[in-house]
Amino acid sequence: MTVPPLRQAAVLAALTLAVFEPTLSSGLVYDARLQILTDPFLHDPRNWPAVLSFAVLGMDVLDFNRPVQLASLMLDAAVWGREPFGYHLTSILLHAANVVLVWLLLSDLLPRGPRGDGRPAPADGPDIAAFAAAVLFAVHPLATEAVCEPTFREDPLVTLFTLTAVVVASRHRPATPDLRRAAVCAACCLLAVGSKESGLVAPLVLAAYWWLFRRAEPPRFWRAAVGGGLAVTAVFLAARFLLEPSPSRIFEAPPVYPGGSLAAALAIEPRILALYAQLIVVPLNLCADYGLYSVRHLQLPAAAVILAVLAVAGIAGARADRRLAFGLALIVLPLLPVLNLVPIYRAAADRYLYLPLAGVAILAGCLVDALWHGRLASRRPTVLAASLVVLLLLGFGSMQRQRVWSNQLALWSDTQARNPESYTAAHGLSDALRVAGRGSEAEACAREALRLSGGERGDDWMALALALESQGREAEADTAADKALAIDPRLATPDARVAVLALEVSDAEEIKRLFGRRAGRKSPPIVPGGASP
């Protein structure tokens, strides 16, 4: 019995909301604390014209290069202020929409693709395979980072507009020019790259769809859709780099290559890609801050063998089935902007795999379809049971991973456990432990951050000073604070550091209290944005 499409879509959306329901009660962590809780930009309605006109590309603000992402967060800010619930709800709804888009795309592809035995697809084939694959995309633990941290929703936004462009284009009928539909596809490409630079792949994905499935049609529509998408993407990227404010008071340090050079990055990248492949198949040891420690078990020869095997299998699959080729395109193309060929702030991250997971879902859908109607058709209960077990395990892993993203202490504790060499984890955990009243543990983490940074960062010495101050060790705290100021005199004006998003308000308040105690007077409080009342 075939389930009506609307009911399938509703069930998928409800399932996604149910799996991610724990995130609705989570706080704000990582970059969200600075962008949503500290930075006043999102909360000022006067910034709407600059964001909607893309004039923000020339402004020195956080995410100046991602106006669509900014607009999304500003909508939440207008409704929810600084309340985490609304931001999480929007991100989960975006994920649910993407799950439905994956299902729609697979529902179109599976009946259309040629079957290995030449027989037509049975009526229930697309329903089973497309639904199972969409659930895989919904519950895979790799999606949690992009969904649970609201300021990382740029990747779900890129996915939303990329998949929408493909689904809209797939509804084109060759008998009509359909230029309005082509304009919608081009607009989706603009919105994708306006969400994040990796959105530049949207017209490339659209082109791959055309080439694999529709190139025998009259080309007018596809020229307009793909060509228009490429044109608006190129114009946006040109404006993004030409208008970029320089120097920036917010982005004080430029990104660097992993390993320190392009040659070193090229030697590390195969290991990162092999790690990605492992995390897709076995999503264990996910981490908010990967580093060389994370790929210690994947030396270059082993990584090269893994990638070679995957490449051979991918080429063979793509030659046998165009649907597999499209799934592979959805995996490979979104990875191109994050291959560390140019420096990026994070060499590797789970959120980079959010759109590629849609490609993984397509491959999985084709596999389930082949098993359901192939040689194992007589063992459908076995196929169904195996699929359910996999999806249940992934769903359990996703819900467990959401706990990690629920608060700062959980996030940085988990990150340090996964990657003990992470400076970000050590520094962040020191702050979280201090706030939790665990001063001695905060001190140990601050000293670890100092070790990892070589003692050359003023903010690490200040973190140590605050940890010591919280234990009543004032003389030691003063010594650490003096070292912090000697390395980075800017810390003497915490308000100014808040204004450039280098400090959270709560940390700045503690620094001012420390300075006030040293000066024998109480320091006035500060407010978000760094201004004194």
Question: Could you describe the 3D structure shown?
Answer:
There is one protein chain. The chain has 533 residues and is mostly helical. The chain folds into 2 domains: 5-244 and 273-404, no CATH class; 422-519, Serine Threonine Protein Phosphatase 5, Tetratricopeptide repeat, CATH 1.25.40. Helix content is 65%, strand content 0%. The longest helix has 29 residues, at 84-112. Mean pLDDT is 91; it is low at 112-125 and 522-533.
The helix content is 55-70%
- Mean pLDDT score, rounded? 91
Rg on CA atoms, Å: 25 Å
Q: Oligomeric status of the shown chains?
A: single chain
Strand segment tally: 0
Number of domains: 2
N/C terminus separation: 67 Å
Structure keywords:
533 residues, mainly alpha, Serine Threonine Protein Phosphatase 5, Tetratricopeptide repeat, 2 domains, 65% helix, disordered C terminus
Would you summarize the structure shown here?
65% of the residues lie in helices and 0% in strands. The relative contact order is 0.10.
What does the secondary structure layout of this molecule look like, with pairings?
Elements: H1 5-19, H2 31-38, H3 48-52, H4 67-80, H5 84-112, H6 125-139, H7 144-148, H8 154-170, H9 179-195, H10 202-214, H11 220-242, H12 262-281, H13 300-320, H14 322-335, H15 354-373, H16 380-404, H17 408-418, H18 423-435, H19 439-453, H20 458-470, H21 474-487, H22 494-499, H23 505-519
Helix pairs in contact: 1-5, 1-6, 4-5, 4-9, 5-6, 5-8, 6-15, 6-16, 8-9, 8-10, 9-11, 10-11, 10-14, 12-13, 13-14, 14-15, 15-16, 17-18, 18-19, 18-20, 19-20, 20-21
